[in-house]
C-alpha cells in the first residue's frame, strides 16, 4: 500500500543527517484517535494511540548564547531565530517551534543556542497530529540536550500550552498525551479530567486500521474549533443554574440535559448532547475492545461520525462521502472522521483481506466525486516519543 509521503528519506537526506553529528536524536510520533472526538477539552474520555509515523529530531548545541536554527528536510524549510527575542511574528510551522522554547523558558529553564534538523514520514495537515509530534519531540529533544529533566507530563502540558499561546488553537490534551504516553500494541483510554489512563491491548487481527486522507484541510478548522469549545462552555454555564456542582460536560448525563432542553439555544443543545453521548460511546467502546467485540466497536465509530456530522457539525462533504461509501463494503466494521474535522482523514476498521480492493474502489469513487486524489495508509499503535541517541 502506498504511503502518501512522496518525498521519502533519500540517501542524500540521510547523508546530510550523518554529517550533522547530532548529540541527541528523538523520535516523535503522530496519533490516531479511535473514538472520543472533541471530548478532551470537555474533560471527557478519548481513545488515542501514537502511530508508526514520526518526526525525527536531530539536535546539537551550537555554542551560541541564543541563536537557533531549525530545518525541515522534507519541506526544504529553514528557520533561524533568537531565543532572547520574544515577538518573532512567525509563520506556519515555526510558531510551534518558538511556542515550545517560550513555554520551556516560562517554566524557569535556561536554553542556549541549538541547531535542529527534522526528518519526517508523518503527513502534515492530515489530522494525525503532526503538530503534537512537532511540539512534544522538540520539547523532549531540548530537555535531553540541556539536561532539563522535563517529565513526560511536563512535556505534554507545555506542548499543549505552546499550541494555545503561540498557534492560537485552544486544543485539549489528547494529541500531546498520545504522542508522549503511548505504548506499542496498545490504545490509551484517557480520562481527560483526572489524566488517569488505561492501556488497552489492541490485538485486532485480522482487522486493521486504515486511514484515508481526503487531502482537504478546510480553513474553518482553527476558528470553528475555538467556537465549538466556547459553545460547550456556554452550555456548562447554563447547566450550572440547575446543577451548580457541574464543572464540565463530563459531569452531566443526558437525562439532566434533556430536562432543560427548552431553555437551550438549539445549536448549543446539540453540541452538549453530542459530547455527552460521545463520552458514553468511549466507555462502551472500551468494554467492546476488552471483550474483543469489534462489531460493536465499529457501530460505535459510525455513531460517533453521525454525531460529529449532524450535531457537532465539524465534518465536511469529503469525510461524509467516505464514511457513507464505507457502509456499502464488506469487511469494514466501522468508519468515522478523525481529529478536529473539516478535512483530514477517516479512520476505518477493516478486514485485512478487504483492504486492497477497498482502497482502489474508494480512490476511484473519491476522484470521480471531487476530482481530487485520496491517499491511504495503515497505522499501527506505537510507542510514544523516545530518545534514539
Ligand atoms: C484536535 C485537538 F488538538 C485535540 O485536542 C482534540 O480536541 C481533537 O481535535 C478533537 O477530538 O486534534
Automatic annotation (TrEMBL):
GO cellular component, one term: cytosol
Taxonomic superkingdom: Bacteria
Keywords, comma-separated and alphabetical: ATP-binding, Carbohydrate metabolism, Cytoplasm, Galactose metabolism, Kinase, Magnesium, Metal-binding, Nucleotide-binding, Transferase
PROSITE patterns named in the record: GALACTOKINASE
One Pfam family recorded for the sequence: GHMP_kinases_N
EC supergroup of this enzyme: transferase
Domain (GHMP kinase N-terminal) ranges: 96-182
GHMP kinase C-terminal domain span: 285-366
GO biological process: galactose metabolic process
Domain Galactokinase N-terminal: 20-55
Gene3D superfamilies referenced in this protein's UniProt entry, alphabetically: 3.30.230.10, GHMP kinase, C-terminal domain
Gene Ontology molecular function: any one: galactokinase activity
Enzyme Commission number(s) from the entry: 2.7.1.6
PANTHER family attached to this UniProt entry: GALACTOKINASE-RELATED, MEVALONATE KINASE/GALACTOKINASE
Entry similarity comment: Belongs to the GHMP kinase family. GalK subfamily.
Protein's UniProt name: Galactokinase
Organism: Leeuwenhoekiella aestuarii
Organism placement in taxonomy: Bacteria, Pseudomonadati, Bacteroidota, Flavobacteriia, Flavobacteriales
